[in-house]
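JOB MANIFEST
job_type = single_chain_structure
chain_count = 1
residues = 349
[input]
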Amino acid sequence: MSRWVVFRCQSGKGVGLGHVTRCCEMARHLRDQGIGSAMIGPAEGLRLAEDGDLFQHWQAVEDRQGSARDAARVVALCDRLGTRHAVIDDYRADPAFQEVLKAGGLRWLQQFDASCDWRFCCDVLVNAGPLERRDAYLPRLERPERVQTLFGPAHAVLRRGFRQVVRRRDGRAVRRVLVAFGGGDDRGAIALVLKAVAGRLGREVTLVLVSGAGNPGLAAVERAAAEMGSGQVELHVGPEDMPGLMAGCDLAVIAGGTMSYEAAICGLPMVTLALAANQERPCLGWQALTGAPYLGRVADVGSETLFEAVSSLIRADRQREAMAVKGRQAVDGRGVERLISALLERAVA
């Protein structure tokens, strides 16, 4: 049994922190089983103090030097550590990258971007999007009988705290609206929401803004928040207790990334916008599964369209209640266990 798992994780400008967050949570689960983790990819600046306990090896990569060389790094580190297990949470892992891993004899789990049309030869293929189905991908699997597909929200990797949130009454009145678009570049999304709804939802409604410290739009958000009246807005930058903060809200305006699964497990109704092409299918999936309105790409959404979607949902208690129930049914927080069990060929406890 391998005592190491090597992670290749995508990060950097315009990518956000979702890949890193997933890898850290998987590493935390592996550590609890006595298995070490090694990280390839993210800059040292993304390595938190607690990550020293999660990753005994951290290799920052500024220049991939192409898919073949990048994959060769993964194989080389696996050889050095005496392991054959890897997690590829990098949407650039194209067929050329995969062929190197296959030639190196690795067994790997691969997260992928549903907006691409690549073929796959991995052992475990993962996408938590609500729309994804195995049948649709069979023509793109090199050897379908040898590829395990883990699709759908039950396979979302969430931070441990989200499994412990206190359930609140579904369909409750909306008093706190979460506005958050990940820990990286929000592409102007928070500013768009402020322009659309600030001061228009009633004095009893507070906008709860969440931004990462590295968001290029943070200064503009801070200025806009400072101009709003007392009690109308809260701004949280890199909050320590995101599960508690989200669970204390009643409605969310968010993107289609990891946070949409976090909102679902909290029973938080949502309005979604896509920051990038790879978020469009998840947003459409949530709309089909729970009725969560998907408004389109951030650059294409008008202020009045956004205001109408949020304000109408605030008035629709039964719709919000149904959305909350369906979201919670879809995400149980055990995705990390399912992924690791599949990679290591174990039964889920």
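[summary]
Residues 18-32 form the longest helix (15 residues).
DSSP finds 13 helices and 13 strands in the chain.
exit_status = 0
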